[in-house]
């Protein structure tokens, strides 16, 4: 579990990422400070215009303007026009600097979220299959897409606005202190009080965001399942029931999202109301000061200007905490995924496959259960001799596919040993073992891509090689008739192919990977007997000298094996060749005894 925690996104990791972008962030902050410096003095032009121009009390401001303006323009209209141009210039510069600053933040946030996404994708390759089965792809999907989006928004938008807003409020308070220290002090005190209360209010709503996320995850998981099974559901006329269930889950999202939306909005508005009350108090105090102190009308305009100036940034600051709650919840969910239990991956200490020799496999006293409820493999003992074809038969649910899962390391036995060429799998490591194995499943996994890509899975092979394996797999005739040949798109999960064609494509893929150990798990179950027989004949040359494990129910697939194991309740009850076993009283005879001459025997 400790090693899993190495992947999580914590403060240290974030700090290390931020350090990588130090230069950009320092630049962004300097830009933010300059932008604030440029925009904060704008309201100061108010006292100048009101006191010195409108009320005709020329002072230092007018003197300064006279340095810039030619004599002919040194009139109230000229001063107003100059102030107007100055303000336009200052506002434009400040906005341009804001754009520059937010650009820096976007660059940083996109890079950091890209890093998080890569970290999650790396993790996907490590998570144990058991965890995948429990979590479902929808949940994982939502972490990689929605949660990262939330974090991206927080870093890129909220955080960059936070800096500008904070600097603006701070700068405004400084100018107010300078204009009238009592008013400045007042603002400096009001803001922390408002932020304190708004945090209290925010605390009451943060769990609602998590609830909304959970509903969303449940919905997404179910949606993916329903879409994957839509064909079956439609055929069984159960589509409506499942779609209604989805609607019900969508309604849960509505309920939870609505609760969070209005309560966070209300909390935000209440905080802002608190600020507005402070604001009104401040305004009243400022007017009293005009009456009872030397604050001028112009200065009070400046003070009001600053209050107005502050409203937006204060609202941004108050909103930051809600984005923070969302980002924190998203981070927690991302870390949940990053902490998921990983597949057991022992390091390679011995490589028993280096001499290109055939592979023999020994299974010794193997015990395995998926959960506490039932034992699937019970002290299983068997041998797959090098270069031989071994069939595994038995009633459904006997543990045949489970043994395959253990052989390829998808699950791990609770006790017992698995030996490849006499070496325990724990000393070899499954990465090395999987290089030697190819598994063909009853329902092959195909991608919505070309035939070529589905065959090669990204490795480089010439067309001749591809056509050769397609020929062995009895698929070359079918594919040569397609107008796009190897570049034909096969659709989602290979829907444009028949069940038998999908199985043959999967066999061709196995042939191409040139494995030393072949596992065929009901790999030809969808083929007609004539094609199946041709395929077995064609594959015989390829399989010679390769250890082959055949899991099948059909006699045609079983009887060609050099050795057959009959499995019941997770252990071997009979061993022998077809000829020997049909003569023995027992499960094999019950299953295949009367159909020795028939080509296919469904169980
Ligand atoms: N992922 C899983 N989680 C929990 N239980 C499982 C899982 N996969 C299989 N099982 C259980 O393990 C037992 C053995 O299943 P397994 O698929 O190995 O049988 P099998 O012999 O291959 O059956 P079949 O001939 O029908 O393919 C069954 O009782 C099944 O319910």
From TrEMBL:
Pfam families: ABC_membrane (PF00664), ABC_tran (PF00005). Residues 361-594 form the ABC transporter domain. The keyword Magnesium does not apply. Residues 26-326 form the ABC transmembrane type-1 domain. The keyword Transmembrane helix applies. InterPro entries: AAA+_ATPase (IPR003593), ABC1_TM_dom (IPR011527), ABC1_TM_sf (IPR036640), ABC_transporter-like_ATP-bd (IPR003439), ABC_transporter-like_CS (IPR017871), P-loop_NTPase (IPR027417), Type_1_exporter (IPR039421). Keywords: ATP-binding, Membrane, Nucleotide-binding, Transmembrane, Transmembrane helix. The chain crosses the membrane at residues 25-46, 162-179, 185-202, 298-318. Its main location: membrane. This is ABC transporter ATP-binding protein. It comes from Vibrio rumoiensis 1S-45.
């Amino acid at each position: 579990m400790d090693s899993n925690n190495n992947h999580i996104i914590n403060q240290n990791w974030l700090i290390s990422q931020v350090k990588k972008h130090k230069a950009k962030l320092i630049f962004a902050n300097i830009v933010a400070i300059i932008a604030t410096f440029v925009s904060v003095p704008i309201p100061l032009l108010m006292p100048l215009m009101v006191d010195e121009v409108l009320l005709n009390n020329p002072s230092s401001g007018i003197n300064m303007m006279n340095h810039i303006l030619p004599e002919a323009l040194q009139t109230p209209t000229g001063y107003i026009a100059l102030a107007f141009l100055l303000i336009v210039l200052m506002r434009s510069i400040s906005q341009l600097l804001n754009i520059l600053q937010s650009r820096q933040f976007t660059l940083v946030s996109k890079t950091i979220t890209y890093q998080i996404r890569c970290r999650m994708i790396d993790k996907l390759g490590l998570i144990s299959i058991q965890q995948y089965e429990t979590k479902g792809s929808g949940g994982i999907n939502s972490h990689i897409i929605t949660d990262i989006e939330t974090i991206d928004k927080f870093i890129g938008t909220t955080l960059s606005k936070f800096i500008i807003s904070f600097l603006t409020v701070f700068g405004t308070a400084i100018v107010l202190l300078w204009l009238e220290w009592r008013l400045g002090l007042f603002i400096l005190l009001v803001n922390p009080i408002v932020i304190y209360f708004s945090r209290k209010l925010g605390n009451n709503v943060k769990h609602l965001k998590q609830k909304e996320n959970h509903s969303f995850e449940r919905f997404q998981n179910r949606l993916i399942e329903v879409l994957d099974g839509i064909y079956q559901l439609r055929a069984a006329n159960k589509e409506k029931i499942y779609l209604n269930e989805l609607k019900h889950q969508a309604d849960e999202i509505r309920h939870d999202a609505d609760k969070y939306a209005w309560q966070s909005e209300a909390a935000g508005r209440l905080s802002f109301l608190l600020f507005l009350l402070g604001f009104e108090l401040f305004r009243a105090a400022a007017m009293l000061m005009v009456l009872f102190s030397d604050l001028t009308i112009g200065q009070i305009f400046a003070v009001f200007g600053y209050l107005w100036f502050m409203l937006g940034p204060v609202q941004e600051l108050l909103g930051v905490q809600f984005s923070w709650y969302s980002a924190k919840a998203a981070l927690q969910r991302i870390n949940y995924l990053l902490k998921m239990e990983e597949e057991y991956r022992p390091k390679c200490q011995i490589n028993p496959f280096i001499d290109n020799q055939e592979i023999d496999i020994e299974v010794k006293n193997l015990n395995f259960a998926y959960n506490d409820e039932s034992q699937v493999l019970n002290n299983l003992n068997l041998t797959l001799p090098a270069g031989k074809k071994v069939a595994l038969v038995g009633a459904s649910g006997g543990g045949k596919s489970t043994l395959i899962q253990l052989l390829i390391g998808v699950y791990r036995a609770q006790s017992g040993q698995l030996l490849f060429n006499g070496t325990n799998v724990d000393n070899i490591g499954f990465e090395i073992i999987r290089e030697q194995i190819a598994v063909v499943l009853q329902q092959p996994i195909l991608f919505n891509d070309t035939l070529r890509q589905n065959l090669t899975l990204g490795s480089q092979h010439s067309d001749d090689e591809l056509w050769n394996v397609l020929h062995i797999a009895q698929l070359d005739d079918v594919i040569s008739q397609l107008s796009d040949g190897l570049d034909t798109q096969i659709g989602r999960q290979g829907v444009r192919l028949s069940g038998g064609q999908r199985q043959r494509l999967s066999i061709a893929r196995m042939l191409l990977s040139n494995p030393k150990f072949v596992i065929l798990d009901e790999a030809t179950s969808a083929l007609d007997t004539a094609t199946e027989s041709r395929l077995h004949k064609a594959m015989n040359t390829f399989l010679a000298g390769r250890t082959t494990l055949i899991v099948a129910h059909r006699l045609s697939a079983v009887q060609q094996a050099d050795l057959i194991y009959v499995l019941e309740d997770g252990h071997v009850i009979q061993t022998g060749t077809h000829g020997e076993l049909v003569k023995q009283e027992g499960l094999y005879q019950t299953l295949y005894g009367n159909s020795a001459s028939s080509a296919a025997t469904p169980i």
